[in-house]
């Protein structure tokens, strides 16, 4: 099997061969957290498991599942309202302040990853990339390309579409640069077609055979001549571009490439993907300000910059081992998702698990105001929230009991933003220390974990439907 090195919760859970239905539910909430906000995948799984652990004694004592579910929904609503109440809103009008916020959020997302030593460098790069997009902030408009070799600090963001040059036979090795080129986007095969498996042509004379060969060449040359006469300088095709077409285009100072980022190029440069070369007018061709080839590491890359239709960018990062580069790509994806979410919902809370401790304190206070059995269950919910700061202390090698006691005391005195200080093995005001994260990450994690716990608690029994061992009757 393939080895994967990762500390991304969603990635690890996706790769597990999970059979148990309850465990599958936890995998699903981690996937949804990853898709929705991009971070907090481990937290959401840990929370859901701890919620279930805390209510297990009540279930064993015969408490009805509906009472547990009602209490958990009440607690979740109280917690979400509290987050919205205390979250700090950053004004979008102040661009400098907003950028600082986004960089801090990206750094928090990267601080637990393999590239944590370069988190300031990559946080700036991720914010640059997201800021280059238009208001819709479409994730697919950011491309991530890996270059093997070189230092991480040589990574860069390109304002446009970039992809690796692939050299064909007949390909001109001279680097090209065009100003205001027209771009043909095709779904057309530009090579001599191989015969089909079941095709058969019977010829009786050499002239007949020559006529077939000539017709094949004429069809191919007709296609590439039409492309040349359309005025396109760059030809991109989903289907293969053969040696003959490559040589033909190279002789006429045109560039061609196959099967690369066609959709993103179309969205950025305009035009439309054509399935025929018969109607290649200027209306269906894309445009950009500059197309050029540049050497990056041992590879040559093509860049489309100054795209008129949609703002797009490409992050090109360097690395060593393949697994390291894959994990770096996942880390950058997480940071990009967090920055997008922070722009769309411009409210933040302190990181370092300060918000969990504040919610735990708040729910413990609230539970005494709620009569009946729900009081105990909301108290259990509040206790479960402390698993995340406790786990953070364990991961950092701290004494979790000591740190949690300090945090409880500080929050009881009104230190709302106090959380774990990883650098000094103590607690600190993480808002003052600029350890911030989007409030939406925590809201989403609490809601998803609570719903998953309620779903599992509400299951009365599981019925396994074995596959039938009886052969189907003959038709």
UniProtKB/TrEMBL annotation:
Give me the Gene Ontology terms describing cellular component: chaperonin-containing T-complex
- Whether Flavoprotein counts among this entry's keywords is no
**Protein origin, superkingdom:** Eukaryota
- Gene Ontology terms for molecular function: ATP binding; ATP hydrolysis activity; ATP-dependent protein folding chaperone; unfolded protein binding
Q: Which CDD domains match?
A: TCP1_eta (cd03340)
The cross-references to InterPro entries, in alphabetical order and at most eight, read: Chap_CCT_eta, Chaperone_TCP-1, Chaperonin_TCP-1_CS, Cpn60/GroEL/TCP-1, GroEL-like_apical_dom_sf, GROEL-like_equatorial_sf, TCP-1-like_intermed_sf
Pfam families in the record:
Cpn60_TCP1 (PF00118)
Q: Which UniProt keywords apply?
A: ATP-binding, Chaperone, Cytoplasm, Hydrolase, Nucleotide-binding
Which PROSITE patterns does the record associate with it?
TCP1_2 (PS00751), TCP1_3 (PS00995)
Q: Subunit structure, per the record?
A: Heterooligomeric complex that forms two stacked rings. Component of the chaperonin-containing T-complex (TRiC), a hexadecamer composed of two identical back-to-back stacked rings enclosing a protein folding chamber. Each ring is made up of eight different subunits: TCP1/CCT1, CCT2, CCT3, CCT4, CCT5, CCT6A/CCT6, CCT7, CCT8. Interacts with PACRG. Interacts with DLEC1.
What is this protein's function per UniProt?
Answer: Molecular chaperone; assists the folding of proteins upon ATP hydrolysis. Known to play a role, in vitro, in the folding of actin and tubulin. Component of the chaperonin-containing T-complex (TRiC), a molecular chaperone complex that assists the folding of actin, tubulin and other proteins upon ATP hydrolysis. The TRiC complex mediates the folding of WRAP53/TCAB1, thereby regulating telomere maintenance.
Q: Which NCBIfam families match?
A: chap_CCT_eta
The record's comment on protein family reads:
Belongs to the TCP-1 chaperonin family.
Protein name per UniProt: T-complex protein 1 subunit eta
Q: Which organism is it from?
A: Mustela putorius furo (European domestic ferret)
Source organism lineage?
Answer: Eukaryota, Metazoa, Chordata, Craniata, Vertebrata
């Amino acid at each position: 099997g393939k080895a994967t090195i990762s500390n991304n919760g969603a990635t690890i859970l996706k790769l597990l061969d999970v059979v148990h239905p309850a465990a599958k539910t936890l995998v699903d909430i981690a996937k949804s957290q990853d898709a929705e906000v991009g971070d907090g995948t481990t937290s959401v799984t840990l929370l859901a498991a701890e919620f279930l652990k805390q209510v297990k004694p009540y279930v064993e004592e015969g408490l009805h599942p509906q009472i547990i579910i009602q209490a958990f929904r009440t607690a979740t609503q109280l917690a979400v309202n509290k987050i919205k109440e205390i979250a700090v809103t950053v004004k979008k009008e102040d661009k400098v302040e907003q950028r600082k916020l986004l960089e801090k959020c990206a750094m928090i997302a990267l601080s637990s990853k393999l590239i944590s030593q370069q988190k300031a460098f990559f946080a700036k790069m991720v914010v640059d990339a997201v800021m280059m997009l238009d208001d819709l902030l479409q994730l697919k408009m950011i491309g991530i390309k890996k270059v093997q070799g070189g230092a991480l600090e040589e990574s860069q963001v390109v304002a446009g579409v970039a992809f690796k040059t692939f050299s064909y036979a007949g390909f001109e090795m001279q680097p090209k640069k065009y100003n205001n080129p027209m771009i043909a986007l095709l779904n057309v095969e530009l090579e001599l077609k191989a015969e089909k498996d079941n095709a058969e042509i019977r010829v009786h004379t050499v002239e007949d055979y020559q006529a077939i060969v000539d017709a094949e060449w004429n069809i191919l040359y007709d296609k590439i001549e039409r492309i040349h006469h359309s005025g396109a300088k760059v030809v991109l095709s989903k289907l293969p571009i053969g040696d003959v077409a490559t040589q033909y285009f190279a002789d006429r100072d045109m560039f061609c490439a196959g099967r690369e980022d066609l959709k993103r190029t179309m969205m950025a440069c305009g035009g439309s993907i054509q399935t025929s070369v018969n109607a290649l007018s200027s209306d269906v061709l894309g445009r950009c300000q500059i197309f050029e080839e540049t050497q990056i590491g041992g590879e040559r890359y093509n860049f489309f910059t100054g795209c008129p239709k949609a703002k797009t960018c490409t992050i090109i990062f360097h690395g060593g081992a393949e697994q390291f580069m894959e994990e770096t790509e996942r880390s950058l994806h997480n940071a990009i998702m967090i920055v997008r979410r922070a722009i769309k919902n411009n409210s933040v809370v302190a990181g370092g698990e300060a918000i969990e401790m504040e919610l735990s304190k708040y729910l413990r206070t609230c539970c005494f105001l709620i009569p009946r059995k729900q009081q105990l269950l909301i108290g259990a919910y509040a206790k479960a929230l402390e698993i995340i700061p406790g786990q953070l202390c364990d991961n950092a090698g701290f004494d979790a009991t000591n740190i949690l006691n300090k945090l409880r005391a500080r929050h009881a005195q009104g230190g709302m933003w106090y959380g774990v200080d990883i650098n000094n093995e103590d607690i600190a005001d993480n808002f003052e220390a600029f350890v911030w994260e989007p409030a939406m990450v925590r809201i989403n994690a609490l809601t998803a974990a609570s719903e998953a716990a309620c779903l599992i608690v509400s299951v009365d029994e599981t019925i396994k439907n074995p596959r039938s061992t009886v052969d189907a009757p003959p038709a």
